Amino acid sequence: MLTSKEAQAMLGVSASNFHSLVRSGAIAHYRFGKRTLRFEEAQIHEYMKACVIASTVPKEVTITLINVSLKGEKSALRDFFEKAGLKARDKL
Predict the structure, then answer these.
(1) Residue 81: exposure state from Cβ atoms within 10 A (0-12, 13-18, ≥19)
(2) Domain containing 35: what range?
């Protein structure tokens, strides 16, 4: 059985946030008397698993290519490409 401070440390949350979770019933606990709370380590891990948000990685990424004509000697667009380390094509 874990004390409030031990359970709080496992979750890595502030004391006020932890006590809000306990009051709301989000974290199962045992109460002994008015102030003594104890937590099962398995219950803390169960709560942590319930908080996991699965990230999704797109299977396919589509890249749209834009053809831009850079006629003339100097232009702002040509300067941009040069600063970005890209070689601009004069003809398509």
Answers:
(1) middle
(2) 4-50
